[in-house]
Amino acid sequence: MFLMAFLIAFFIVSFVEVLRSSFLASGAPEIPTASAIEGITPGSFSDLAERVKPAVVNISTTKVLKGRSLGSPFGRSPFGGPFGDDFFERFFGDIPERDFKQRSLGSGFIISNDGYIFTNNHVVENTDKILVKISDGKEYEAKIIGTDAKTDIALIKIKPDNGLPIVDIGDSDAVRVGEWVIAIGNPFGLEQTVTAGIVSAKGRVIGAGAYDNFIQTDASINPGNSGGPLFNMQGKVIGINTAIVAQGQGIGFAIPINMAKNILNDLKTKGKVTRGWLGVSIQNISDDIAKSMNYKNKNGVLISDVFKGDPADRAGIKVGDIITEINGKSIKDTHELLITTAGLHVGEKAIIKVVRDGKEMIFQIIVAERKDKPEMVLSQKTGGYFGIHVQEITKDMAKQLGIAQNMGVIVTDVDEGSPADNVGIQAHDIIVQVNKVKILSFKQYLAEIGKAAEKKNAILLVKRGNANFFVGMSME
Question: How far apart are the C-alpha atoms of 455 and 450, rounded to whole Å?
């Protein structure tokens, strides 16, 4: 009986091994074993945390507010109702003002042993006093060296008694989704707190500003973590912890450290950041625009306006060109172009690759510095192709609009549910081009829009207020 059981077990094991060998021979990937999966997970974060914690600091700030002694810091009576400030002033005389101190907490990390520290702009913005506590418990008053509200990054400095421990700066571009990370900071005032998680996503846009490009992590981040570092498993800073989703758990956001590295010199030397400017208005390429332009690759951005005398104009770039690369870096959409251009230095030479009428062209641009309607009565409807009704721009209209009289035609109405309505054309828009032909008169518009209607698709350059943009329409 025992022999029979042994033979059956041996047969089953042999059969499974044969199946496994056959499966692997077929080229299919091997399923990882439990021990292999355990090897991917760090056994402990203790050594890493012990090594990097000394360079993480706690930041406390104080802001002085003026207010009434019987009221809140904003001078309002705490009693509400009919008993306002006037009531108390009438019976007690003028109430003297006093100072109220508003305190808040944040985090930061030391990047040089002479006391330079990275943190968030919102941690130190509009504060009267900044105190930095380092890992050995000593406190120093800090001063702001430079801030950048657009990226929420600030550089502050203390004068230490001795050399300080510093962080190693990593490369956030090399970070991969799924990597283990740890966050260290001062959540809710609890000093030197370590939390762990993974990189959940990269390049997140959360509506914080034009330069959103966050690393998302599920390492616990809470109020007070702001400005603290996000470390990879090599102990290098890859991000600055900045934001959380109040309604969710396990969702935090960090500014990529490469963004901070890129503006460090400006913050140190100027106290602010100067950003690159090409001198163009841009837009993403919709399916209709791509079809109308016979552009097969959806990557790239379409130039809807070129500002006269600015770098792109001087280099020879034109409206309708599609930017596909800047300095060898592929440009996928408008957000990517904005981030890339912001990283260019004023006076730097940038190599721009564009597609014009299906042909690749290269331009060299000298980067400049980025410097951060009247009503009218419209007459009768005319036209009708693609659901657009237009009229000639009269001399009086041109004067009111501040444009040349021969600069296109003005939209008077759009048929509901028409191709034009579907792509967002509106009354008062000015149609400047039809299929890349500049419109100088109403007669020319009718001729060009008629040709487009025969082909059942059109691409228009539209002016709305101070902005130009392309729209693609199709009747198919």
Answer: 9
Which residues fall within 8 angstroms of residue 394, CB to CB, at 6 or more apart?
Answer: 405
For the CA atoms of 149, 215, 132, 73, what is the dihedral angle to 10 degrees? 50
In angstroms, rounded to a whole number, what is the distance separating the alpha carbons of residues 399 and 395? 6
Token pair in block for residue 233: 């498993």
Full set of structural domains in the chain with CATH: 52-157 (2.40.10.10), 168-269 (2.40.10.10), 276-369 (2.30.42.10), 385-474 (2.30.42.10)
Nearest in space to 220 (alpha carbons), one of 188, 182, 167:
182
For residue 267, the Cα-to-chain-centroid distance in whole angstroms is 19
- What pTM was estimated for this model as a whole? 0.66
What are the C-alpha distances in Å from 222 to residues 92, 227, 244, 310, 339? 44, 11, 7, 44, 27
* pLDDT score for 96: 58
Helix, strand, or coil here: 342?
helix
As a whole number of angstroms, the distance between CA 78 and CA 397 comes to 56
CA-to-CA separations, 208 to 143, 160, 390, 391, in angstroms, rounded: 26, 34, 39, 41
**Strand partners of residue 419:** none
Structure tokens at 337: 């172009």
Hunting for tokens 């280099």 — which residue is that? Answer: 315
For residue 461, what are its two tokens? 């350059």
In 60-212, where does DSSP find H-type helix? 85-92, 121-124
3-state secondary structure of 214: strand
Which of 362, 205, 337 is CA-nearest to residue 279? 337
Determine the Cα angle at 58 with ends 55 and 61, to 5°. Answer: 140
Across the strands, what pairs with 195? 183
Cβ-contact 278, 369 below 8 angstroms: no
**Of the candidates 195, 175, 238, 170, which has an alpha carbon nearest to the alpha carbon of residue 45?**
195
Within 8 A by CB and 6+ apart from 110, the residues are 55, 56, 57, 116, 117, 134, 164, 165, 166, 167
Other Cβ atoms less than 10 A from the Cβ of 214: the count is 22
**Average pLDDT rounded to a whole number, residues 88-106:** 65
CA distance 470 to 262: 33
* % of the chain residues with pLDDT over 90: 41
pLDDT tens sequence across 100-136: 677 888 999 999 999 999 999 999 998 999 999 999 8
Catalytic residues, which ones?
122, 152, 226
Ramachandran quadrant class, 399 (left: phi over 0; alpha: psi -120 to 50; beta: rest): alpha
How is residue 282 written in tokens? Answer: 């841009």
In whole angstroms, give the CA distance from residue 227 to residue 241: 5
58 and 105 in contact (C-beta within 8 Å)? Answer: yes
Q: Which two tokens stand for residue 305?
A: 């306006």
CA end-to-end distance (rounded Å), the chain:
78
